[in-house]
Amino acid sequence: MNIYLIIRMRSHKVIGIRNLTSSTYVIRMEKNDFSFKTGQYITLGFTGSIDRREYSIYSSQNADYLEVLIKEVEDGLVSKKLKRCKSGDMLDVDGPFGHFSLQNEELQTKKFLFIATGTGISPIHSFVKSHPELNYSVLHGVRLEEEAYERDSYNKNQYILCTSREKTGDFHGRVTDYLKQNPISSDTVCYLCGNCHMIYEAYDILEKQGINLGPIHTEVYF
C-alpha cells in the first residue's frame, strides 16, 4: 500500500492564488503531465506534510494548469494552510479519483441540468469550461450573492443564482424551492453536487417530476 501511494503522489508548483471572497480562494498549479476527467477530485496538501484534503478539480480538462476551489474552514487544518501558500510553493497531488463525470455519448445529444450548493460548483465549472458546446443550465444555491464564485464563467442565460439570505440573486430561496416552482423536463440529465440535505431533497423532487434514476448523478460535497 505504501508503494502504491508513493507512485501516485506528485508534486506541483503553485503558480498563483486568487481570493474570491474573504474565505474562498482558487489555487492554480502547474499541470505537468497530470490528466483527469471533468468531475474528478484530488487530494492536496503541502509537500512534506501528512495533512491532506479532497478537492474537486475546478479547471478545464484542456487547460495547461490545474486549479482547485477551496473554502477556508474555521477548524480546518488544510484549508487554512493552503490559503497562505504563494507562487513557487510545492503541493502534493494524489489522484485523480471519482466517477462524477460526464458520459461521452451524451455530450452532443442531451440536455443537462447542473445543481450545486456553495463550492459544490467546482466540478460544474470544470464541466462547462471543458465542454462549452454543452446544452446546459446551472442552478447554484448560496447564502449571499458574493458566493456566486466567478459567475461570469457561465453564459448568463444558462446560470441561475439562488440566494437564501439575500434577494440579490436570480431567485430568492433554495435550489429546491426553485425546482418545485420550475419543473424540469423528463429528458434532462441531472448532476447534483453539494450538501447531502440538498441532494436528498432535490433527488426526490426530480423523481416526482419524472426524472428516472439513471439520468441523476450525485456527489456529496462537504
UniProtKB/TrEMBL annotation:
> What biological processes does GO assign it?
pyrimidine nucleotide biosynthetic process
Its cofactor is:
FAD
Q: Which Pfam families match?
A: FAD_binding_6, NAD_binding_1
Keywords in alphabetical order, please. FAD, Flavoprotein
Q: What is the lineage of its organism?
A: Bacteria, Pseudomonadati, Bacteroidota, Bacteroidia, Marinilabiliales
Q: Which residues bind FAD?
A: R53, E54, Y55, S56
Does the keyword field hold Transmembrane? Answer: no
Q: How is the cofactor bound?
A: Binds 1 FAD per subunit.
Domain of life of the organism encoding this protein: Bacteria
Q: Which residues form the FAD-binding FR-type domain?
A: 7-103
Organism for this UniProt entry: Ancylomarina longa
Q: What name does the UniProt record give this protein?
A: Oxidoreductase
Answer whether the UniProt record assigns the keyword Flavoprotein to this protein.
yes
Per UniProt, what is one GO molecular function of this protein?
flavin adenine dinucleotide binding
**Record-linked InterPro entries:** Cbr1-like_FAD-bd_dom, Cyt_c3_hydrogenase_gsu, FAD-bd_FR_type, FNR_nucleotide-bd, MRET, OxRdtase_FAD/NAD-bd, Riboflavin_synthase-like_b-brl
